[in-house]
Write a structure and sequence with these properties.
GO molecular function, one term (chain B): structural constituent of ribosome
Protein name (chain B): Large ribosomal subunit protein uL4m
Number of strands of chain B: 7
Distance between the termini of chain A: 100 Å
Number of strands of chain A: 5
Strand content of chain A: 5-15%
Largest sheet of chain B: 4 strands, parallel
Largest sheet of chain A: 3 strands, parallel
Radius of gyration of chain B: 29 Å
Keywords (chain B): Ribonucleoprotein, Ribosomal protein
Strand order of the largest sheet of chain A: 1-2-4
Family (chain B): Belongs to the universal ribosomal protein uL4 family.
Oligomer: heterodimer
Structural class of chain A: mainly alpha
Order of helices and strands of chain A: HEHHEEEHEHHHH
GO biological process, one term (chain B): translation
Distance between the termini of chain B: 46 Å
């Protein structure tokens, strides 16, 4: 009986509790007498720049006059504030998740960033999801997915089985609303020229391309008008009279 | 937050997830018939049901307890962590001293730098001088620390197990008293040998009024709700008497959920059964 056997004979009270061995380390206290081993000069030796109060060096990273490591190499490049990092997800991984029953998709409920995150298929959505086509032959079930981007091989593999890919523009707020399943706000349309050109292009399966508007079962009314307006530049004519040809 | 959502997303699927993590104990699959190999050997621990009437005429009953809560391996270091964390949180932290900047006084240099033959001195508030400020003295600060929630939960389990093994844990049907008069409770507790060092813990939302009134003026007796119970209390008090509602609440909060003891299974009438040992809270 477990209650008969006792490992220690004394009762546990407030007076005989102690921390686990080696779980606590005594503090190093400088300048408290010779017996401590760190009295007197407190481990600094005698005089000199390093013995003085405040940091011993003129400044951080100073190497005594030798060219410091931070100055030996030239600066290079710039950091792009518009840089986007997409979380990659491959087709074989999605198929494995479907086989395990951790992911389901249908035209009415396509796979979004939320489903991928919560099922553990991806660990962080970053700036969006990009569908990639590694091990495409392993994909057997038709999937319906709305990533931020998709590679050409992934699009081809998904559509050859009968699935669908519609790449949707998610700005940081829209991505957050998608992941948190918040539907009271409108997701913003792309504003940058490069984004507009990308998402109105059926080659990329952009959600604002006319073919996507026609095919997508989850198309919003707003997108139809957006698609029309964003693509109106293609039919625009210019008054070329009086402009010299170069 | 996401871990709870993940479980609900995974649980709603039709297919059976075959992945198993080594750190999670296997759960019994209710749909399949259990063979002798797949049954987990979980044996409940028991404690004799106490009552305010003492060793009564009626037949003895035993209370079944969840072993994951009341039969946990003893970890003294976890108890130490929980007790120290609790005591740190109680510190008022109001010790305060004045630094040389805060001591009242002028910035005037007391005597000339050179020529006096004595040591050089600046203003009167220097820590070297009598009446000056304190160098690195205490300032009001918060001594509370963070302790992982699961460490505190383990501490509770260890403390309850420890009390049961030391025969200092009791279970009552209900912690209520028939009278508001302190003298009545005093004499009954003296008769039971529970007069000093007993902590009553009730699982109800508040301590029953008559018990509260009767015990309020008794030194060495305290009544608490299960929500206010901490590891420090369980270690400090000599005797811990729970009621059935408290046992339920503690098992719900601390148990691993493998053995859900229902209300009908809780009190066992057949005390002569071999697995039940007469364990009563001793004096």
């Amino acid at each position: 009986m477990s209650s008969v056997f006792r490992s220690k004979t004394a009762r546990i009270t407030l007076s005989n509790l102690s921390p686990g061995p080696n779980s606590q380390h005594a503090q190093k206290r400088l300048g408290r007498g010779q017996g401590s081993g760190r009295g007197g000069t407190s481990g600094r030796g005698h005089k000199g720049q390093k013995a003085r109060a405040g940091n011993g060096k003129p400044k951080a990273g100073f190497e005594g006059g030798q060219t410091p490591i931070t100055k030996r190499f030239p600066k290079k490049g710039f950091v792009n504030p518009n840089r986007k990092v997409y979380a990659p997800v491959n087709l074989d991984r999605i198929q494995y998740w479907i086989d395990q029953g951790r992911l389901q998709s249908s035209p009415e409920n396509p796979i979004t960033a939320r489903e991928l995150l919560l099922s553990g298929c991806i660990h962080n959505v970053h700036d969006g999801i990009k569908l990639l086509g590694d091990n495409a032959p392993y994909l057997k079930t038709p999937i319906h997915i709305t990533p931020s981007r998709a590679s050409q091989s992934a699009i081809k593999a998904v559509e050859s089985i009968g699935g669908s890919v519609f790449c949707q523009y998610y700005n940081p707020l829209a991505l957050r609303d998608c992941v948190k399943s918040r539907e009271d706000r409108i997701s913003a349309a792309p504003t940058r020229r490069t984004d507009i050109l990308w998402y109105t292009n059926w080659h990329n399966r952009g959600y604002l391309s006319p073919e996507a508007i026609a095919k997508n079962p989850k198309v919003e009314e707003r997108w139809k008008e957006l698609s029309k307006q964003l693509l109106s530049f293609k039919d625009q004519t210019f008054d070329t009279k009086g402009i010299k040809k170069m | 937050m996401f871990s709870a959502l993940r479980k609900s997303v995974a649980g709603s699927s039709q297919a059976i997830c075959r992945r198993r993590m080594a750190t999670i104990a296997p759960t019994l699959d209710q749909s399949k018939p259990t063979t002798s190999q797949s049954k987990l050997a979980i044996r409940k621990v028991y404690v004799t049901m106490s009552s305010f009437t003492g060793k009564s005429n009626s037949a003895k009953k035993a209370v079944a307890l969840d072993p994951t809560v009341f039969d946990h391996p003893i970890r003294r270091d976890i108890l130490h962590l929980c007790v120290v964390h609790h005591l740190d949180s109680l510190r008022q932290g109001t010790a305060s001293t004045k630094t040389r900047a805060e001591v009242a006084g002028s910035r005037r240099k007391i005597r000339p730098q050179k020529g006096t033959g004595r040591a050089r001195l600046g203003d009167r508030q220097s820590p070297m001088l009598r009446g000056g400020g304190v160098a690195f003295g205490p300032k009001p600060r918060d001594f509370s620390t963070k302790l992982n929630r699961k460490v505190i939960q383990m501490g509770m389990r260890v403390a309850l197990t420890m009390k049961l093994r030391e025969q200092r844990l009791g279970v009552l049907q209900r912690i209520n008293w028939w009278s508001h008069k302190t003298a009545t409770l005093n004499s009954r507790l003296s008769g039971l040998g529970w007069r000093t060092g007993t902590l009553f813990v009730t699982g109800e939302s508040e301590v029953p009024a008559r018990m509260r009134l009767a015990s309020k003026n008794l030194r060495g007796i305290e009544c608490r709700t299960v929500a206010d119970l901490v590891v420090y209390d369980i270690v400090k008090w000599r005797r811990v008497i729970l009621d059935l509602a408290a046992v339920d609440a503690l098992e719900r909060a601390l148990g691993k959920g493998l053995l859900g003891i229902s209300d009908s299974e809780r009190v066992v009438s057949d005390v002569t059964h071999s697995c039940v040992e007469e364990v009563e809270p001793s004096a």
